[in-house]
Design a protein that fits this description.
Layout: H1 2-24, H2 31-62, H3 65-68, H4 72-102, H5 110-134, H6 140-145, H7 149-166, H8 172-197, H9 212-230, H10 244-275, H11 286-326
Helix pairs in contact: 1-5, 2-4, 2-5, 4-5, 4-8, 5-7, 7-8, 7-9, 9-10, 10-11
C-alpha cells in the first residue's frame, strides 16, 4: 500500500501539469495520445537510468570516478558530460520515435510537437519521481516542486523540433537549430544539477546554490515564451528601451526580478521543508508560529517586489508599443 501511495505521488503532479498545458493548447492532440507519450517518456527514463548505470560502471573500472566527484569540477563533469547528455538524448529519442510513427497518419503542427515534448518529459519526470521516492533519497515536497524542471530543460529542442517538423520547406538551418537547442538543454540541465549540489560543499562554493531558483524562474519564463511562439502569439516584451543605457537598466531590473522572485520561492521552499517533520499542533506554538509568520512576510515582500518590477517593465513595453502603433 505504501508503494502504491508513492507511485501516486510520483505520477499525479506530472499528470496535473500535463493537463494544465493540454488545456492551454489550441487544437491539442487527443488526450489518449498524450497519455501514451507520457508512458513512453517514463520508459525513456528507465532507459536513461540503465545507460547511466552502465556508464558509471565503465568509468569506475578506468578511473576513481567517485573520488573525482568529490570536487565541484568533478560534479560538473559528471552532470554535463554524463547525466545531462544521456537524459536529454533519451527524451529526444522518445519524441522523435513518436513523431516518426504519428507523422504517417497526421499532419503535425509546431504546437503538436511541443505538447508531445511536454508529455514525454513529464513522463520522464514521473519515472524519476518514483525512483527517488521509493529509495527515500528525496521528499514528496521536493519532487512535487521539481515537476516542471525536465520540461523546462527540453523546451528549446521541443520548440526547434516543432518548427522543423511543421515547416513545408525543411531548411538546413532548421535542422542545425535542433542541434543547438539540444546542446542548450544539455548545458542548462547540467548547470541546474550542479547548482542544486553546491549546497553540499563548503563556502564559498555553497553560495552558488542561491542561483538555483532564479535560474529555474528564468527557465520557466523561457518555457512560457516558447509556448507563445509556437502558438503564433506575440511574446511578452520586457526590454523596450530605445537607447543602450535604457536597455541596460531594464536588463538590470530583470536580474532583480529573477533574484528577488527566485529566492522568494526558495525561501518558502526551505520553510516548508523545515516545517514538514512537525505535527499540526506544533505549528501553532508561539515561537514556531512567530517564525512562520516572519518568514512568510519576508518572502512575500521579496515576491511582491519582483512582481511590481515586472509590471513596471510590462507597462513601459505596452506604452511604447501603443505609441508606435499611433504613428501609423
Amino acid at each position: 500500500m505504501a508503494n502504491f501511495s508513492l507511485l501516486l505521488w510520483a505520477v499525479i503532479p506530472p499528470l496535473v501539469l500535463l493537463w494544465f498545458y493540454y488545456r492551454r493548447t489550441p487544437a491539442a492532440p487527443p488526450l489518449l495520445n498524450l497519455l501514451l507519450l507520457f508512458i513512453i517518456g517514463a520508459v525513456s527514463g528507465f532507459a536513461a537510468l540503465g545507460l547511466e548505470w552502465t556508464v558509471e560502471i565503465g568509468l569506475n573500472s578506468v578511473v576513481d570516478w567517485q573520488q573525482i566527484q568529490r570536487s565541484i569540477l568533478g560534479v560538473a563533469l559528471r552532470q554535463i558530460l554524463e547525466i545531462a547528455i544521456i537524459e536529454e538524448g533519451c527524451k529526444l529519442a522518445a519524441v522523435v520515435l513518436a513523431i516518426c510513427y504519428l507523422q504517417r497518419r497526421y499532419y503535425l503542427r509546431a504546437t503538436t510537437v511541443f505538447i508531445f515534448t511536454i508529455a514525454v518529459t513529464l513522463g520522464f519526470t514521473a519515472e524519476e519521481n518514483w525512483i527517488y521516492l521509493s529509495h527515500g533519497t528525496s521528499s514528496i515536497l521536493e519532487r512535487s516542486i521539481g515537476t516542471p524542471v525536465h520540461t523546462m530543460f527540453s523546451a528549446p529542442w521541443g520548440y526547434a523540433l516543432g518548427i522543423y517538423i511543421s515547416s513545408t520547406r525543411r531548411l538546413n538551418r532548421d535542422s542545425q537549430l535542433i542541434t543547438k537547442a539540444w546542446l542548450n538543454a544539455v548545458f542548462f540541465h547540467g548547470l541546474v544539477n550542479v547548482l542544486s549540489k553546491a549546497w553540499g560543499f563548503p563556502q564559498p562554493i555553497k553560495f552558488l546554490g542561491y542561483g538555483l531558483f532564479p535560474l529555474l524562474l528564468w527557465m520557466f519564463w523561457r518555457l512560457e515564451q516558447l509556448l507563445r511562439r509556437v502558438q503564433g502569439r506575440r511574446v511578452i516584451t520586457l526590454i523596450s528601451g530605445y537607447t543602450p543605457l535604457a536597455r541596460y537598466w531594464q536588463r538590470t531590473l530583470i536580474l532583480f526580478i529573477l533574484l528577488l522572485g527566485g529566492n522568494a520561492i526558495f525561501g518558502l521552499f526551505l520553510l516548508a521543508r523545515k516545517l514538514s517533520p512537525l505535527r499540526w499542533e506544533q505549528l501553532f506554538e508561539a515561537d514556531i508560529l512567530s517564525f512562520i509568520l516572519k518568514q512568510i512576510v519576508l518572502n512575500l515582500f521579496l515576491g511582491i517586489s519582483s512582481w511590481l518590477i515586472y509590471r513596471y517593465l510590462r507597462y513601459l513595453a505596452g506604452h511604447r508599443y501603443f505609441l508606435k502603433l499611433g504613428k501609423y
